[in-house]
Design brief:
Blueprint lengths: L1 H4 L3 H9 L5 H13 L3 H14 L4 H13 L3 H9 L8 H13 L3 H16 L5 H16 L3 H15 L7 H4 L8 H16 L1
Helix pairs in contact: 3-4, 3-5, 4-5, 5-6, 5-7, 6-7, 7-8, 7-9, 8-9, 9-10, 9-12, 10-12
């Protein structure tokens, strides 16, 4: 991870490939391949994990995300339909809802986000909680529900540590100390607020 974070991804991949075969190693290689845009390689690696562990939820979701990236939506839709209705974490369920949205099933994705927001509301502030509300807000914005989207962006900002209780204009101002998530939330919220 440290090599990759330092911008030396090929060295990190090489080092990881030299490690003994394990599910954790193979999932990490698959995730990195998907993040690099190498969806075909990621798909092969996720399927390799699933051949050893057919019930591995992370590999199943990764496989679906790789199918979506390859625009093989009918296969992704079929795999989504075979997923259990609730995963082990809100993050896994968020990824499934995003996949439903990506294959054109926005009504199903919206229903899942409605359930996820209720579950996430009970969680303490965290990245997972912020991502649920951010992604729900993005879908709501695309579905022409700007008021609900803005409310969910406020929830996401609060969950990430941004004070969003006052003026929304102030809450969307850039801060040099922001991490990627806070920058994303400020930017998305400001864009939506300007459109209103």
């Amino acid at each position: 991870e440290a090599l990759r974070a330092a911008g030396q991804e090929q060295a990190a991949v090489t080092l990881l490939e030299q490690q003994p075969v394990s599910t954790r190693r193979d999932l990490m290689l698959a995730d990195w391949a998907l993040e690099r845009g190498e969806a075909q390689q990621a798909l092969a690696e996720y399927q390799q994990v699933l051949s050893r562990q057919p019930d591995n939820g992370d590999a199943a979701l990764g496989r679906i995300e790789a199918l979506v990236a390859l625009q093989r939506n009918s296969e992704a839709r079929q795999a989504l339909a075979q997923q259990p209705p609730v995963q082990a974490s809100v993050n896994a369920d968020r990824r499934a809802a995003l996949a439903w949205q990506a294959v054109g099933e926005t009504t199903r994705a919206a229903a899942q986000f409605t359930d996820l927001k209720q579950r996430a509301a009970a969680l303490p502030p965290s990245q997972d909680k912020a991502l649920v509300f951010r992604d729900a807000a993005r879908l709501e914005g695309a579905q022409q529900q700007p008021e609900q989207a803005l409310a969910d962006y406020r929830q996401a900002m609060t969950a990430s540590g941004i004070d969003s209780s006052g003026n929304i204009s102030r809450a969307t101002r850039n801060d040099p100390q922001d991490d990627w998530l806070k920058r994303s939330l400020r930017s998305d919220t400001a864009d939506l607020y300007r459109q209103q």
